[in-house]
Amino acid sequence: MIKAITFDLWDTVFIDDTDEPKRKAAGRPSKKLERRQLVKRFVDKHKHVSQEIVNAAYNAQDAAFRKAWHDQHITWSVKERLEIVLKGLAVSLAENELSELVKLHEEMELEFRPDFVDGVHEAIKTLSKDYKLAVISDTIFSPGTSLRKLLEGEDLLQYFSAFVFSDEAGCSKPAECVFNTAQKALGIEFDEIVHIGDREHNDIFGPKKMGMKSILCLAAIDRGSDKNNADAFFEKYNELPAVIKKLNERK
Q1: CB-based burial, 192-211: b 16+ in 10 Å, e otherwise
Q2: Where are the domains of the chain?
Q3: Topology of the domain covering 4-16+114-249
Q4: Which of 3, 150, 153, 173 would give a disulfide with 202, using CB separation of 3.0 to 4.6 Å?
Q5: What is the pTM of this model?
Q6: Are 203 and 8 in contact (CB under 8 A)?
Protein backbone atom coordinates (compact mmCIF):
# COMPACT_ATOMS: atom_id res chain seq x y z
CA MET A 1 0.00 0.00 0.00
CA ILE A 2 1.17 3.50 -0.80
CA LYS A 3 1.65 5.51 2.37
CA ALA A 4 3.74 8.44 1.13
CA ILE A 5 4.04 10.61 -1.98
CA THR A 6 7.11 12.55 -3.05
CA PHE A 7 6.82 15.45 -5.49
CA ASP A 8 9.27 16.94 -7.91
CA LEU A 9 8.74 20.72 -8.13
CA TRP A 10 9.76 22.21 -11.50
CA ASP A 11 7.12 21.45 -14.17
CA THR A 12 5.32 19.30 -11.62
CA VAL A 13 4.15 21.72 -8.92
CA PHE A 14 5.12 25.00 -10.58
CA ILE A 15 5.88 25.76 -14.21
CA ASP A 16 9.38 26.66 -15.29
CA ASP A 17 9.92 30.01 -17.02
CA THR A 18 6.35 31.27 -16.52
CA ASP A 19 8.01 34.17 -14.73
CA GLU A 20 9.63 35.33 -17.98
CA PRO A 21 6.52 37.10 -19.40
CA LYS A 22 6.14 38.87 -16.04
CA ARG A 23 9.74 40.04 -16.21
CA LYS A 24 9.26 41.28 -19.78
CA ALA A 25 6.08 43.16 -18.84
CA ALA A 26 8.03 44.89 -16.07
CA GLY A 27 10.76 45.91 -18.53
CA ARG A 28 13.30 43.46 -17.14
CA PRO A 29 15.59 41.21 -19.18
CA SER A 30 15.32 37.43 -19.13
CA LYS A 31 16.85 35.62 -16.15
CA LYS A 32 19.64 34.30 -18.36
CA LEU A 33 20.60 37.79 -19.52
CA GLU A 34 20.19 39.41 -16.11
CA ARG A 35 22.52 36.86 -14.48
CA ARG A 36 25.25 37.75 -16.95
CA GLN A 37 24.62 41.47 -16.53
CA LEU A 38 24.89 41.08 -12.76
CA VAL A 39 28.28 39.43 -13.06
CA LYS A 40 29.55 42.22 -15.30
CA ARG A 41 28.26 44.85 -12.88
CA PHE A 42 30.20 43.30 -9.99
CA VAL A 43 33.29 42.61 -12.07
CA ASP A 44 33.37 46.19 -13.39
CA LYS A 45 34.15 47.38 -9.87
CA HIS A 46 37.54 45.70 -10.21
CA LYS A 47 38.42 45.60 -13.90
CA HIS A 48 36.84 46.23 -17.26
CA VAL A 49 35.66 43.11 -19.06
CA SER A 50 33.34 43.24 -22.05
CA GLN A 51 29.86 41.76 -21.74
CA GLU A 52 30.79 39.32 -24.52
CA ILE A 53 33.69 37.93 -22.47
CA VAL A 54 31.49 37.66 -19.37
CA ASN A 55 28.87 35.83 -21.42
CA ALA A 56 31.47 33.40 -22.77
CA ALA A 57 32.77 32.59 -19.27
CA TYR A 58 29.23 32.15 -17.97
CA ASN A 59 28.25 29.94 -20.91
CA ALA A 60 31.29 27.70 -20.37
CA GLN A 61 30.38 27.29 -16.71
CA ASP A 62 26.75 26.51 -17.62
CA ALA A 63 27.87 23.76 -19.97
CA ALA A 64 30.13 22.24 -17.31
CA PHE A 65 27.34 22.44 -14.73
CA ARG A 66 24.87 20.64 -17.00
CA LYS A 67 27.43 17.89 -17.64
CA ALA A 68 28.04 17.33 -13.92
CA TRP A 69 24.31 17.53 -13.15
CA HIS A 70 23.23 15.08 -15.83
CA ASP A 71 26.13 12.61 -15.83
CA GLN A 72 27.44 12.70 -12.26
CA HIS A 73 24.15 13.58 -10.51
CA ILE A 74 25.61 16.43 -8.48
CA THR A 75 24.38 20.01 -8.29
CA TRP A 76 27.00 22.70 -7.88
CA SER A 77 25.88 25.53 -5.62
CA VAL A 78 25.35 28.98 -7.08
CA LYS A 79 28.43 30.14 -5.18
CA GLU A 80 30.54 27.39 -6.73
CA ARG A 81 29.22 28.25 -10.19
CA LEU A 82 29.96 31.94 -9.81
CA GLU A 83 33.44 31.22 -8.49
CA ILE A 84 34.12 29.27 -11.69
CA VAL A 85 32.91 32.21 -13.80
CA LEU A 86 35.02 34.68 -11.85
CA LYS A 87 38.08 32.46 -12.06
CA GLY A 88 37.63 32.36 -15.81
CA LEU A 89 37.57 36.17 -15.80
CA ALA A 90 40.60 36.36 -13.48
CA VAL A 91 38.63 38.44 -10.98
CA SER A 92 38.35 38.01 -7.21
CA LEU A 93 35.46 39.51 -5.26
CA ALA A 94 35.45 40.32 -1.58
CA GLU A 95 33.40 37.86 0.45
CA ASN A 96 30.59 40.37 1.01
CA GLU A 97 30.46 41.14 -2.72
CA LEU A 98 30.33 37.48 -3.66
CA SER A 99 27.63 36.83 -1.07
CA GLU A 100 25.52 39.64 -2.53
CA LEU A 101 25.98 38.35 -6.08
CA VAL A 102 25.00 34.84 -4.96
CA LYS A 103 21.89 36.15 -3.18
CA LEU A 104 20.76 38.08 -6.26
CA HIS A 105 21.00 34.88 -8.28
CA GLU A 106 19.35 32.62 -5.71
CA GLU A 107 16.38 34.91 -5.03
CA MET A 108 15.71 35.99 -8.60
CA GLU A 109 12.59 33.82 -8.89
CA LEU A 110 11.18 35.23 -5.68
CA GLU A 111 10.80 38.65 -7.28
CA PHE A 112 8.86 37.36 -10.30
CA ARG A 113 7.40 34.03 -9.24
CA PRO A 114 6.50 31.11 -11.50
CA ASP A 115 2.90 30.02 -11.99
CA PHE A 116 1.71 26.92 -10.17
CA VAL A 117 0.17 24.08 -12.15
CA ASP A 118 -3.62 24.24 -12.34
CA GLY A 119 -5.26 22.16 -9.64
CA VAL A 120 -2.07 21.37 -7.72
CA HIS A 121 -3.12 23.26 -4.59
CA GLU A 122 -6.32 21.27 -4.10
CA ALA A 123 -4.62 17.98 -4.99
CA ILE A 124 -1.87 18.46 -2.40
CA LYS A 125 -4.37 19.45 0.29
CA THR A 126 -6.56 16.44 -0.49
CA LEU A 127 -3.70 13.93 -0.63
CA SER A 128 -2.17 15.21 2.62
CA LYS A 129 -5.19 13.84 4.49
CA ASP A 130 -4.31 10.24 3.62
CA TYR A 131 -0.59 10.23 2.79
CA LYS A 132 2.66 11.67 4.08
CA LEU A 133 4.02 14.14 1.53
CA ALA A 134 7.59 15.11 0.73
CA VAL A 135 9.49 17.15 -1.85
CA ILE A 136 12.39 15.82 -3.92
CA SER A 137 13.72 18.55 -6.17
CA ASP A 138 16.92 19.43 -7.97
CA THR A 139 18.07 23.01 -7.48
CA ILE A 140 19.57 24.74 -10.49
CA PHE A 141 19.71 28.42 -9.47
CA SER A 142 16.99 28.56 -6.80
CA PRO A 143 18.24 26.70 -3.69
CA GLY A 144 16.09 24.87 -1.19
CA THR A 145 15.66 28.04 0.88
CA SER A 146 14.07 29.84 -2.09
CA LEU A 147 11.95 26.86 -3.15
CA ARG A 148 10.52 26.62 0.36
CA LYS A 149 9.53 30.29 0.10
CA LEU A 150 7.75 29.64 -3.20
CA LEU A 151 5.71 26.88 -1.54
CA GLU A 152 5.12 28.98 1.56
CA GLY A 153 3.84 31.84 -0.57
CA GLU A 154 1.09 29.55 -1.89
CA ASP A 155 0.30 28.15 1.59
CA LEU A 156 1.56 24.71 0.53
CA LEU A 157 4.69 24.32 2.64
CA GLN A 158 2.67 23.11 5.63
CA TYR A 159 1.52 19.95 3.83
CA PHE A 160 5.02 18.49 3.39
CA SER A 161 6.80 16.64 6.17
CA ALA A 162 10.18 16.23 4.45
CA PHE A 163 12.28 18.08 1.88
CA VAL A 164 15.18 16.77 -0.18
CA PHE A 165 16.83 19.50 -2.25
CA SER A 166 19.94 18.66 -4.24
CA ASP A 167 21.94 21.62 -2.92
CA GLU A 168 21.34 20.38 0.62
CA ALA A 169 21.58 16.62 -0.05
CA GLY A 170 24.83 16.84 -2.01
CA CYS A 171 23.41 14.80 -4.89
CA SER A 172 20.67 15.09 -7.49
CA LYS A 173 18.14 12.81 -9.14
CA PRO A 174 18.32 10.02 -10.16
CA ALA A 175 21.15 9.22 -7.70
CA GLU A 176 20.23 6.70 -5.01
CA CYS A 177 21.26 9.05 -2.18
CA VAL A 178 18.38 11.40 -3.04
CA PHE A 179 15.75 8.72 -2.55
CA ASN A 180 17.54 7.20 0.43
CA THR A 181 17.42 10.60 2.15
CA ALA A 182 13.69 10.93 1.46
CA GLN A 183 12.94 7.40 2.64
CA LYS A 184 14.78 7.91 5.92
CA ALA A 185 13.04 11.25 6.52
CA LEU A 186 9.62 9.73 5.88
CA GLY A 187 10.29 6.54 7.85
CA ILE A 188 8.38 4.51 5.26
CA GLU A 189 9.57 1.58 3.14
CA PHE A 190 10.50 2.23 -0.50
CA ASP A 191 7.67 0.06 -1.86
CA GLU A 192 5.20 2.20 0.08
CA ILE A 193 6.29 5.45 -1.61
CA VAL A 194 5.29 6.84 -5.00
CA HIS A 195 7.23 9.64 -6.68
CA ILE A 196 5.64 12.16 -9.04
CA GLY A 197 7.62 14.09 -11.63
CA ASP A 198 7.87 15.16 -15.26
CA ARG A 199 11.21 13.71 -16.41
CA GLU A 200 11.61 9.99 -17.08
CA HIS A 201 15.38 10.02 -16.56
CA ASN A 202 15.11 11.65 -13.13
CA ASP A 203 11.61 11.00 -11.86
CA ILE A 204 10.66 7.60 -13.27
CA PHE A 205 13.79 5.48 -13.66
CA GLY A 206 15.38 6.86 -10.48
CA PRO A 207 12.63 5.90 -8.02
CA LYS A 208 11.78 2.64 -9.80
CA LYS A 209 15.39 1.53 -9.32
CA MET A 210 14.85 1.95 -5.57
CA GLY A 211 11.67 -0.14 -5.54
CA MET A 212 9.38 2.87 -5.40
CA LYS A 213 6.39 3.44 -7.64
CA SER A 214 6.41 6.34 -10.05
CA ILE A 215 3.82 8.56 -11.73
CA LEU A 216 4.59 10.74 -14.74
CA CYS A 217 3.14 14.24 -14.47
CA LEU A 218 1.95 15.66 -17.80
CA ALA A 219 -0.02 18.52 -16.24
CA ALA A 220 2.60 21.16 -17.07
CA ILE A 221 4.48 19.67 -20.02
CA ASP A 222 4.70 16.46 -22.02
CA ARG A 223 8.35 15.92 -22.91
CA GLY A 224 7.49 13.14 -25.33
CA SER A 225 8.26 10.44 -22.78
CA ASP A 226 6.94 6.92 -23.16
CA LYS A 227 4.17 6.84 -20.56
CA ASN A 228 4.46 3.03 -20.28
CA ASN A 229 7.70 3.33 -18.29
CA ALA A 230 5.87 4.86 -15.34
CA ASP A 231 3.41 2.97 -13.15
CA ALA A 232 0.83 5.58 -14.10
CA PHE A 233 0.47 9.08 -15.51
CA PHE A 234 -1.95 11.97 -15.30
CA GLU A 235 -2.69 15.04 -17.40
CA LYS A 236 -4.75 17.03 -14.87
CA TYR A 237 -4.28 17.21 -11.12
CA ASN A 238 -7.89 16.40 -10.37
CA GLU A 239 -7.09 12.91 -11.74
CA LEU A 240 -4.23 12.26 -9.32
CA PRO A 241 -6.08 11.05 -6.19
CA ALA A 242 -7.92 8.44 -8.28
CA VAL A 243 -4.68 7.42 -10.04
CA ILE A 244 -3.01 6.73 -6.69
CA LYS A 245 -6.06 4.90 -5.41
CA LYS A 246 -5.93 2.59 -8.46
CA LEU A 247 -2.24 1.88 -7.81
CA ASN A 248 -3.16 0.83 -4.28
CA GLU A 249 -5.85 -1.50 -5.61
CA ARG A 250 -3.49 -3.40 -7.92
CA LYS A 251 -2.71 -6.94 -6.81
Answers
A1: bbbbbbbbbebbbebbbebe
A2: 4-16+114-249, 20-111
A3: Rossmann fold (3.40.50)
A4: 173
A5: 0.93
A6: yes
